[in-house]
Description:
The chain is an alpha/beta fold. The chain has helices at about 15-25, 40-50, 70-85, 100-105, 110-140, 160-165, 180-195, 230-235, 235-245, and strands spanning about 5-10, 30-35, 60-65, 90-95, 150-155, 205-210, 255-260, 260-265. α5 runs parallel beside α7 (about 180-195).
Amino acid sequence: MSSPQTILMTGGNRGIGYYTLQALVQSPNPYILILTSRTLSAAEKACSTLSSLPPANPSTTLIPVALDVTSDDSIAALVSRLAELKITKLDALVNNAGIAMDAALRGTNPSPAEIREAFVKTMDTNVAGPHLLTTALLPLLESGDGEPRSRVLFVTSGLGSIEEASKPDSPYAFVDAPAYRSSKAALNMVMVLLGKKIEGKGVNVWACCPGFCVTELGGSDAGKAEMGAKTPEEGAVVIVGILEGRREGDVGKVVNVEGGVEGVYGW
C-alpha cells in the first residue's frame, strides 16, 4: 500500500480549493490534506463537511489550519503548526487563496484611493503572499538528492496572460479587471522565477488556470452560469491532474483544461 501524499491547500474552505480537496478525498489514492483558511473555524467547518463524505481511501485524512497569506506572523505560525504536527515533508503546495476586488468598483466612479487600495490588497494577497509562503515552506518541499519529489502550484488565470490580452479576438481581451489581471500576470512571473531558483532541488512548479467558474471570487455567483462559467468541480480538474502526475510534460508553464482538452496559455 502506498504512503499518503501530504498536500497543503491555501484557501481550501470554499471554491476551487474546496472542490479540489473533495476530488482528492474521493480519489482511491491516500492523502494527508492540510486545508487552510483565514480563520481556523472556517477551516474546521470545511474539513468537517469533507470528512462526512465516504473516503475512497481510509488512509486519507484532513487537517484544518488557520492561515492568512497577507500576514507574516500567520505564515510563521503555520510553519510552527506543521512542526507540531510532525509534518516534515510536503509532497505538494497549492497556492490557491486569492482575491478579486475589481468587480466591486465597476460602475461606482471609484476614487484614486479606492483604485490604489484594490491594487495593493490584490497584489499582497495574490502575489506577495504565495511568494512568501512558498519560500517559507521550501525546506519541506525540497529533496536532498534533486529527484523530483514535490510539486508547487500557483492558481492563476487566463486573464493574466499578456498574450491573450493582446489578441483582439480573445474572450479575455476586454475583461475590465486591471488589479486582478495584473496580479495573475505577476504570479506567473513568481512561478517562473521560483522554478529557476529551485532547479535541481527536487521541486517542480506550475501555474494553473481553472477557468471561469461559478465561485464567490470577484463577487456573487448569480448569473455566472448563464455566462458560461464552469462548475467549481470542473475547474478543479486541472489542479487534480497536476497533483496526480498527469502534467509532468508541462512543468514551468501556465496550464489549463478547456472542454476536457489539456492546454497551455502563452505568456
